[in-house]
Amino acid sequence: MNNDILATLSITDATRKLATKEISSLDLVRACRANIERRNATLNAYLEVFDDVEAQAIAADTRRAMGEKQKLLGIPLAVKDNILIEGRRASSASKILEDYIAPYDATAIKKLKDAGAVFLGRTNMDEFAMGGSTENSAYGPTKNPHDESRVPGGSSGGSAAALASGMALGALGSDTGGSVREPASFCGVVGLKPTYGAISRSGLMAMGSSLDQIGPLTRTVADAKLLFEAMRGQDPLDSTSLDPSFYKEGLQRKKIGVPRHLLARGVDADVLKLFEETLKRLQEKGYALVDIELPSAGLALAIYYILMPAEASTNLARFDGVRYGLSRRGESLFDDYACTRGEGFGPEVRRRIMLGTYVLSAGYYDAYYGKATQARRTLSRECAAALKEVDVIMTPTTPSPAFLIGEKSDPLSMYLTDIFTVTANLTGNPALAVPMGEVKRTKINLPASIQLTAAHGGEATLFSIGREIEAV
User: Fold this and answer.
1) In the chain, where are the structural domains located?
2) Are 49 and 78 a contacting pair, CB within 8 Å?
3) Cβ contact 4:166 at 8 Å
4) Nearest Cα to 154, choosing from 407, 418, 356, 406?
5) Which pLDDT tens digit goes with each residue over 156-203?
6) Is 248 a residue whose pLDDT tops 80?
7) CATH pick for 1-293+396-472 out of 3.90.1300.10, 3.40.50.300, 3.40.470.10, 3.30.70.240
8) Residue 265, pLDDT above cutoff 90
9) ∠ CA 389-391-397, rounded to 5°
10) Which of 430, 296, 292 is nearest to 371 (CA)?
């Protein structure tokens, strides 16, 4: 089997072939590395490819030969640069952590190590996960494998691009406001943002602690389920993590809620056409379409861009040049802080720190942060009420396909890309992005994606309907 076929297998298919000894983990790793050597210099998806990848694969093949049968044993994965792997560099694509070496494994990584996964390397991202295009990396932008003049989405753009270009069989990202689902949409793969607390955040560099979640990027819904089930579970190192008994059974009513009042907000006509065609095919499979109202969803972006910078400014206060990371000296302690943070953080990170500090400051806390917190609770109640009547809420994942690198130099236009994704992070609901077809831009076909949002613990419902979408 040639390298191109091996490197583009689904995890499910690769597991089947590994079990029958048709292929080895070493074969898979070498196929992925061949694509890395051929494409990464252009795409800039990986910041680092680990030097022991073949040794990891040989160890996995040995475990399988001794009778181990875990489904992820020997599967090569890419890992976003803000998820800790013990002994490996973890920079969050920032100069301030350029030489930081992780002292321990993230809980999700530990579970995948136990399952026998092979880690190929760390992938590029928007600095500290702040961005929707992977243009904010301190190490240069990642390019979209479908059209190298376009962005792969963000902030998990490196992981999505690595997967879409055959440089990994699966990948890990983190999702704070759509950072797994948006790049999944732009690169034509599946992306899952789990229920808040489903996967431990221990070992994930924090941006917005009440919003962040580790999530998988895969070629199929079945693969997303495999990775999710391997990583989920309660963790004593994360007090917000959930017990497995929290999860619900699958599909109940075969009803899909569509908030059509949100779809008039700048969705490209061809993306909307694909969305309606996908809904129609699901209707033909026996699903009922129900128009729903989420009155506060129109405020979701405003809520998010108050709460997220507030949490980010607090979380990033630890990078002060004293304890770890970049350190610059000035004439006073204040100068030490100012020089270190001014040189170490990029423009988007500095912008969000300043915004977050402002909304938390005396005199503005109640006017901005307090009101946003109240609006978030209202939005959560509206989503919970809607999901008592329908199985999922469906929208396009993004209003458009991947945009050109440099096209959205205005931060506000960039933030609008998150219009459909931020709600699930604010409410803690699980959401799944599934490819729904392609649209044409300048003679190139680009992927577009549909987003499914379920009740808390409703991942089984997402996987069930997601597989139906793949089949239509």
Assistant:
1) 1-293+396-472
2) no
3) yes
4) 418
5) 999 999 999 999 999 999 999 999 999 999 999 999 999 999 999 999
6) no
7) 3.90.1300.10
8) no
9) 120
10) 296
Closest CA to 307 of 145, 463, 454, 422: 422
Structure token pair of residue 123:
């992938």
Q: How many helices (H) and strands (E) does the chain have?
A: 16, 11
Catalytic residue positions, numbered: 80, 155, 179
What is the Cα–Cα distance from 416 to 411, expressed in whole angstroms? 9
Report residue 315 as tokens. Answer: 């979380």
Size of the chain, expressed as the number of residues it contains: 472
DSSP string, 305-341: HHHHHHHHHHHGGG-SSSSSS-----SSHHHHHHHHH
Does the pTM exceed 0.85? yes
| One-letter amino acid of 464 | S
The residue assigned the tokens 């994930």 is 204
Q: How far is CA 309 from CA 150, 354, 401, 425, 439, in A?
A: 27, 8, 26, 14, 33
